[in-house]
Design goal:
The complex is a heterodimer. Chain A contains four helices and four strands, in the order ββαβααβα. By secondary structure, chain A is α+β, with helices and mostly antiparallel strands. Chain B is globular, with a radius of gyration of 23 Å. Classes of the chains: A alpha+beta, B alpha+beta.
């Protein structure tokens, strides 16, 4: 995923090498946030401002409060990246058995 | 017209204090192009005296395919609420001298009200356009000519569709400057709404590329100083967008006339509270020769 920032402060995540990414690259309104290491894409969060990280966290429905530091917000974002929330499907059979 | 019917409500003593602004607003003379259902979202509105408006925006969920009965996975899905505070307002404050109030006719007083409403409508319309440019996605290129304007509008529609891969509703309007309307009229692809090529009173002048064309005389008057997100702006040509992308709730307050104990004469006052919000930068595009963001 690539992360772009709009002049108004909106953060958008788009797939790598996508048509939307190409569009953003050509538009002066959008700026790509580059990771510290372009090869491994590590450190992309540390290059972002705390305000942008809060916006991104809010969009991903990660709860962050005012007292959370930049590092703490990054920890939460990375934790979300690492684990995809699992929604177990509860079958009617199980409900009947229980 | 309704305006005249309203004017008759004012007695010679100017004691009618409940002239509703929304009865004469917007007027046919206003040059604004913020039209519910055409350029602004008709679904978000407020009641008189409201302090805020809100809507719910859905975030994109991630879904996967596979065998039936698998575990479903999800991330970043959900709705979040966006609030629009109506904490800005346009105000009218006109004083009719005491000597004049008994001498001037009702028609003249009514005209003052109508002109004030037009000024308020135009001021609101320009502020809305500024908000659109400030929060839309800019496309830059060389100035359009009569032979390139159609292609440039189609390119903007293509960019709109590219940026909205999962939305069925496409762009529905293009707001153009008078200069660009001139180019369009020389272009074969432009379909005028009238046989005379005149401008219809609602601001809609024709169609091109499947979009409703609206003329905005205020669009070229917007400069970079109006925009907080850009340090340079030149050659704004048009805005392509969808009606659902721009939210412009307006709380109407009544016009009122008050007779003061502190001064001679009567004051005509009105207040229109408003708020703006761009729902998605991907659903509004503007083309300009130069658009340089703030560093």
């Amino acid at each position: 995923m690539a992360i772009y920032r709009h002049v108004s402060g909106v953060i958008k995540e788009v797939p790598d090498n996508s048509a939307i990414g190409d569009l953003y690259d050509k538009s002066p309104s959008w700026k790509k946030i580059e990771p510290e290491d372009k090869d491994t894409k590590t450190g992309i969060y540390s290059t972002m401002s705390t305000a942008d990280l809060r916006t991104l966290a809010a969009q991903r429905l990660i709860e962050v409060d005012k007292h959370h530091t930049k590092d703490e917000i990054i920890d939460r974002l990375e934790a979300k990246d690492g684990t995809t929330a699992q929604l177990k499907v509860v079958f009617m059979d199980n409900l009947i058995n229980e | 017209m309704a305006i005249n019917a309203n004017a008759t409500a004012i007695t010679a003593n100017l004691n009618a204090d409940d002239l509703a602004l929304n009865y004469i607003y917007p007027t046919l003379e206003s040059v604004g192009v913020l039209i519910p259902g055409v350029t602004i979202n008709p679904e978000v509105s407020v009641e008189v005296g409201a302090a805020s408006a809100y809507y719910y925006k859905n975030d994109d969920p991630v879904v996967t395919d596979g065998a039936a009965g698998r575990q479903l996975s999800t991330n970043t899905a959900g709705n979040y609420r966006k609030d629009i505070l109506l904490n800005k307002s346009l105000q009218v404050d006109e004083l009719i001298p005491h000597a004049g109030s008994h001498a001037i006719s009702v028609d003249i007083v009514g005209d003052v009200l109508v002109k004030a409403a037009i000024k308020a409508a135009n001021a609101w319309g320009k502020k809305g356009l500024i908000e659109i440019l400030n929060n839309a996605t800019a496309v830059t290129g060389t100035a359009s000519t009569k032979s390139t304007i159609y292609g440039n509008i189609i390119d903007a529609i293509t960019a709109f569709d590219t940026a909205n891969p999962e939305r069925a509703t496409g762009a529905n309007y293009v707001i153009v400057t008078p200069a660009v309307l001139g180019l369009l009229r020389k272009s074969d692809e432009f379909i005028s709404n009238t046989v005379t090529g005149g401008i219809l009173m609602d601001g809609i002048v024709g169609h091109v590329g499947g979009l409703t064309v609206l003329l905005s005389k205020q669009l070229p008057t917007i400069v970079h100083g109006d925009l907080s997100n850009y340090q340079a702006l030149a050659g704004v040509e048009f805005v392509v967008g969808a009606a659902d992308a721009f939210i412009a709730p307006t709380g109407f307050k009544n016009f009122r006339t008050i007779e003061s104990e502190h001064y001679f004469g009567v004051k005509i006052q009105a207040e229109i509270v408003y708020g703006f919000d761009v729902a998605d930068a991907n659903r509004l595009f503007f083309r300009a020769v130069t658009a340089t963001p703030q560093a």
